[in-house]
Structures are given as structure tokens and as C-alpha cells.
Amino acid sequence: FKPIMTIILIVINVILFVYEIAFTGQFWEFTNGRAAELFYEWGSVPACITGAHSISQSGIQIACPDISFVSLLSSMFLHGGLMHLGGNMLFLWIFGDNIELKFGRVKYLGIYLVWGIVAGLAHVAIAPLSPIPAVGASGAISGVLGAYLAIFPKARINTFIMMGFFWRMAKIEARW
């Protein structure tokens, strides 16, 4: 079994990250005005989704895109930096293949997309007037992790445990 959909999702996220680098001119963390432009256009901005036509952020007036709800989908493929992308793709690689095998490629993609959108809607529900864009696949991957936990709670996972200067690898059940 090859986790084709997991690989496709990782490749799409990495390709869009390369686009972010090209667009912003930054690699490690996106902090310049070009990044803000990209994230306000394609990130999930609650104030825009709930109907604002423009928002003020740091004294700058920003026009909301005409179809802001599309950002609930597009935002889950953008990332705020290399560590953000790396962490999300690591968890997707480790847990996604099992969920893809269990549900099949189409249902697995549905789980990923639905939970990513639900996470975006949760952001909107918690702070409906927030002008802060949310980006990243964390919500979608949390849905994949939730499915993994529900289906494989006793699966043993190699885990790095660190307590101060003492660390070790241990196998622990997924539920922990």
C-alpha cells in the first residue's frame, strides 16, 4: 500500500510553501509586508468571513477578498514558516497513511478537508471580528489525529520523551 493521497497532500503543501518563499522573499519565518498581503488574501480572516468589507490592522486598512469563505480551504495549505510546515507534514506523514489505508483515499481526503474547514470555522466562531489571519494545516491534521486516536487508541507509537537533560525513546499507546 502506498499512501498516495498523503503524499499528494504533502507535495501540495510543500509546493505552496515554495510559492510563499518566492512571493515573500523569506524562508524561515514570514514577517514582511508581502507575507501579510498573501495571508490576508488567502488566509482565514474571521472579520472578512463574517462580512466585513475591510479591516484595519496596525493602522493599515485592508480590503477583504470578495469570496472570503474560499479562504477556509486555501488557508490550510499555507504555512507561517519552515518549522510550521515541517511539524505539520511530519504528523501528516506519520499518522495519515494509517487513516488513508483504513478509509480509502477519497474519504481520507474528505476527513482532511472537512476538519481543516471546521478548524477555520472554529476560529471564526471564537473571534468573529478578529482581523488576524489563520494559516496552516494544523486543523486538518488534528482531524486526522483524532481519527487515528478513535480507531487505533492502543497502537504503540515510538515517541521521544524529554525531561530536562534526560531523554529517551519509548513506545507508548496512542491514547497517551
Strand order of the largest sheet: 1-2
Mean pLDDT: 89
Q: What Rg, in angstroms, do the CA atoms define?
A: 18 Å
How many strand elements? 4
Please mark out the parts with pLDDT under 50 across 5 or more consecutive residues, or reply none.
none
Structure classification: alpha+beta
Kindly estimate the percentage of residues that lie in beta strands according to DSSP. Answer: 5-15%
Quaternary structure annotation: single chain
Helical fraction: 55-70%
Task: Please outline the major beta sheet.
Answer: 2 strands, antiparallel
What overall geometry do the principal axes of the alpha carbons give? globular
Order of helices and strands: HHHEEHHHHEE
End-to-end distance? 27 Å
Total count of helical runs of at least 4 residues: 7
Topology of this structure?
Blueprint: H1 4-24, H2 33-42, H3 46-49, E1 54-57, E2 60-63, H4 71-74, H5 82-103, H6 105-126, H7 138-151, E3 156-163, E4 166-173
Antiparallel strand pairs: 1-2, 3-4
Helix pairs in contact: 1-5, 5-6, 5-7, 6-7
What does this structure look like?
By secondary structure, this protein is an alpha+beta fold. Helices cover 55% and strands 14% of the residues. The chain has seven helices and four strands. The protein has helices at 4-24, 33-42, 46-49, 71-74, 82-103, 105-126, 138-151; strands at 54-57, 60-63, 156-163, 166-173. The protein has a two-stranded antiparallel ribbon with strand order 1-2. Helix 5 crosses helix 6 (105-126), helix 5 runs parallel beside helix 7 and helix 6 crosses helix 7 (138-151).
